[in-house]
Amino acid sequence: MSPIDLPEPPYTVVVFTSRLRSDLDDDARAAYDRMSARMEILASEQPGYLGVESARGDDLEGITCSYWVDDAAAVAWKQVTAHLLAQERGRQDWYADYRVRVATVTRAYGKRA
After folding, report:
1. Closest Cα to residue 32, out of 52, 48, 44, 18?
2. CA spacing 20 to 30 A to 88: which of 4, 17, 31, 98?
3. Whole-model pTM?
């Protein structure tokens, strides 16, 4: 995963950390991967979307950071019907554990390649 370019702060980040269920078979994992890809595309079409960074390890633990122009844009994304359905499916079928944290980024810095 390479860091994405974002505008100067402030902006909102939604940090989603999760652990997939260890009993997922190949079909369930493929369904999860398809849904994740669809949600990334759908999010990118929403007003106020700035970008996403996501990674998942072999240990089934993952992190996704989605970036939004402000809290209102992040809240609006949470309420998109297809996203609500994906959230419910995740709770029922895919996630053993997850956490969501929302914050305002006030500073950002780093090194570009």
Report:
1. 18
2. 4
3. 0.93
